[in-house]
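Ticket 4471: requesting a sanity check on a complex prediction with uridine-5'-diphosphate-xylopyranose. Repro inputs:
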Amino acid sequence: MRQGSHVIVLPFPGQGHLTPMSQFCKRLASKGLKSTLVLVSDKPSPPYKTEHDDSVTVFPIPNGFQEGEDPFQDLDDYIERVQASIKTHLPELIQDMKLSGNPPKALVYDSTMPWLLDIAHGHGLKGAVFFTQPWLVSVIYYHVNKGSFSVPATKYAHSTLASFPSFPMLSANDLPSYLCESSSYPNMLRIVIEQLSNIERVDLLLCNTFDKLEEKLLKWVKSMWPVLNIGPTVPSMYLDKRLSEDKSYGFSLFTPKSAECMEWLNSKQPNSVVYVSFGSLVILKEDQMMELAQGLKESGCFFLWVVRDTELDKIPRNYVEEIGEKGLIVSWSLQLDVLAHESVGCFLTHCGWNSMLESLCLGVPMIGMPHWTDQPTNAKFMEDVWKVGVRVKAEGDGFVRRDEFVRCVGQVMEGEKGEEMRRSAEKWKVLALEAVSEGGSSDKSIQEFVSMFC
Ligand code: UDX
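Returned structure tokens:
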């Protein structure tokens, strides 16, 4: 291995992208390849300097906004400014690395920013695209982009539409959301579709999945492109407590209330708690939050509910006093620690791909309440392929009633079906551990990547 070999890794600035890509950096480090993780900061003016974790160098760049401006008011504007900032600062970083006699070998970039391939190639670096969604979703986008798959006009059309290897027929309700809601989210649609627009020129495709998870579809994917599945990026010691790997959670944009969660969970019986979280981005309407709050209360189970600070004012007045010891609401958790806790019996999730993988790897059955983007398709995996959860039944406008939450919690926490899900989840957990253990499929992929660039 050549001294000083290294790569640059650039996630989209969102927790669902930062989590797997920062864990990927740690995996590379464990095999001797250094990386610089470029973080677009959520602060307008981050300290423009590098910071060192034990294994990963973090290089923050500004998000292009001035102090006092709200970056999230206009998504288009946000994306444009982030793009402009990266286009200024990334070439400078590469140039500095070259001048110091240690040029990076590759740029690993988030699939939502395909234009980074040209920057990589323009500077003589290999370009490796990183997908934080399953292959099935990427393949659907690929076909839509090529014009070989047309989508229905409405999301709630239930006719079956498409079939993919080893996958049940998909209805419109199972497709990635923007495809059927193109008029509401034209820019999001463009971003997700364009992920695969220049795929023929990409040097390598990385995905946070493992071979057994999408086995048959993968045959087709591998026949098309140079692919390495490197997931799940969950630190191995969560999968097997005997492993002493550094379990630090990579990089977080939120501050977890870890001690509070653990203390509360420690006081509960095994499998008695429903963990509820909708990831870093989903925003529920106020009436939906109210309904969920009532549903959790009426379920009779204990629940630990992550409600981000920005969502807190949607919690019904006096709710915290009313639920007392039955529930704990926190602004952010250390999700892996929560899912690994024996008190947690089920995860009510928005079906973000990271959350799904984490729950699967820790053997926790799920209740899926997908919201947008890849989540409806991820929910289909959960319910009909892995058979580790149920999807809530929403009304025509997407609203989920409290009785439905009560029904799903009862089914997963108490019924025979819940036991079956737990058994299935345990099987997937074993396969995930196999993939990341020494000599497993994902471990070999990481080794192959490291060998390419050392
Ligand atoms: C999004 C999409 O939903 C996902 O499908 C896509 O492919 C990547 O980006 P997000 O909506 O935030 O991400 O959800 P998810 O993919 O589940 O990622 C959230 C991450 O935050 C997970 O790694 C989860 O462990 C972590 N988290 C969440 C916490 O650590 N604590 C919390 O309280 C909530």
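Notes from triage: The radius of gyration is 22 Å. Leaving this open until the requester confirms.
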